[in-house]
Specification:
By secondary structure, the protein is mostly helical. 48% of the residues lie in helices and 0% in strands.
Length: 155
């Protein structure tokens, strides 16, 4: 386990906290594996789900920020991501387990997936999907051409 990182930390801080080199191409592949699992879970479990919102946001239109969801709904998706993780991503998720049963690695990634969609990242909206990843650090990591990164790491 590594010490928890706040959700608003930058991508660079996130990678360093996980013990990854932000300038290494293999780190980029690992990052996209983690992000892919969070995206898939977000789309399947949270996207457009008004019934999972905290009461004060019940009448708000999507997209929703991570803070709009109930703690129980967000935690459920974090646990779901962990339970369906690939061996490659599970190794990184294990670093994020806390004594309270939370997982700061998955929470950070899911928070950032929500952040991209909730419209707060104005500069990223006019660019390609996931362009926000390049705005908070100097790694130069670009979104890879869409492919299933599970295939890349399996070989």
């Amino acid at each position: 386990m590594t010490a928890p990182l706040i959700r608003s930390a930058t991508k660079r801080q996130f990678l360093i906290q996980l013990g990854l080199d932000p300038n290494d191409d293999r780190t980029s592949q690992t990052y996209w594996l983690l992000k892919d699992e969070a995206i898939r879970a977000y789309e399947a479990q949270l996207q457009g789900r008004r019934d999972l919102l905290r009461p004060e946001y019940a009448n708000q239109d999507p997209p929703y920020a991570a803070a709009h969801f109930t703690a129980a709904a967000f935690s459920h998706v974090v646990r779901l991501i962990y339970s369906t993780a690939t061996p490659t991503t599970r190794a990184y998720y294990n670093r994020g387990r806390t004594t309270q049963g939370d997982n700061w690695v998955i929470s950070w990634m899911l928070y950032h997936v929500c952040r991209y969609r909730d419209g707060r990242n104005i500069r990223a909206r006019s660019r390609e999907f996931h362009a926000d990843d390049d705005l908070d650090d100097s790694t130069g990591s670009k979104a890879p051409p869409w492919k299933d990164w599970r295939e890349v790491t399996a070989n």
